[in-house]
Amino acid sequence: MHPAVVVVGSYNQDYAWRSDRLPQPGETRRALGFATGPGGKGYNQAVACHRQGVPTCLIAALGDDALADLARHHAQHEGLTCRWQIVTGAVSGSACVLIDAGGQNQILVHPAANERLDPAFVRARREDFSDARVVLAQLESNPEAIAAALELGRSRGALCVLNPAPVHAGLDAALLSACDVITPNETEFAQLLARFAATAVDASTLAARSDAELHDLARRLPVPTVVITLGAQGCFVAHAEGAAWAAHEPACCRHAAEPVVAVDASGAGDAFSGALAAAIAECGSVPFTTAVRRASRAAALSTERAGTASAMPTRAELRARYGP
Q: Residue 194 belongs to what domain range?
């Protein structure tokens, strides 16, 4: 069976430490716990999509090291289809995650092999794109490989979704314009506005701005649909005229976050993007608000568990908590 969603992105092995609070510069604090497990924005989002019951394929790069063996083991255990490019002489990606008592985090990523994902390797997987309804990508991998994936997706009529995280120096207007939907958080949205719209905004003020202000800012980017994730403040959706859902949706709307008792917000954005891609692939013409609601619920549930990929909720868990 060909996948309905193709995710092109990163695999990182996560190393996470918990503390009562995040350390200040130059400060050493005692950790209260440690864990390691699978992560990386590409892998997290692919798992989030896969656990919603939608056929999913991840295309990613690994080094020729022991972490690559762990990645293959994790994916096999998950039942997730993966196309791995093994980069000789490289190490696999890794991430250092610091988490405080309230679930907030600081993350340091070493992309390693992810940055050497070859566009030719992506293009050689064109058969995986043949029935794809959604192509989902992030920016922890080589931007040229991401551009190749979006080009393949568009040629097959798939909807192209980019989670522009982190905002990569190689991201250009052409790559951004190849997307149908982007899902930045407040910081990433502010960075995109500075780079592509010569507009300076304080990311910390975005959630408090009016819908009209946010819609105006979103329309300064060359993307039909912009979804700004606002953490505990939910998310904001802005459609341009001609966007896939513009004829059936309000030009903009705000979605409140679901109430949760958060212990680790590390993978919430990935849960959102992966579940959104799954809902779009599964629902098609169903209102975008329906897809966003499911994505918001997946993101909320993910914060109630420690970890990233391992914290992604299943479709059954969403139904048990929120109903059909």
A: 5-322
Amino acid making up residue 193 = L
CA contacts within 13 A on the Cβ side of 262? 22
**Catalytic residue positions, numbered:** 270
Question: Would you give the DSSP letter of residue 297?
Answer: H
Domains identified in the chain, total number:
1
Averaged over 158-168, what is the pLDDT?
96
Quick: pLDDT tens for 251-298: 999 999 988 888 888 899 999 999 999 999 987 656 899 999 999 999
Cβ neighbours around 53 below 10 Å, total: 12
CB neighbour list of residue 318: distance below 8 Å, 6 or more residues apart: 52, 294, 297, 298, 301
Percent of the chain with pLDDT over 70: 99
Q: Which helix (H) or strand (E) holds 255?
A: strand 252-255
Q: Report the distance separating Cα 30 and Cα 28, nearest Å.
A: 7
pLDDT tens figures, 210-227: 999 999 999 999 999 999
d(CA 294, CA 279): 7
CATH code assigned at 265: 3.40.1190.20
Helix (H) or strand (E) holding 44: helix 41-50
Q: What is the pLDDT of residue 94?
A: 96
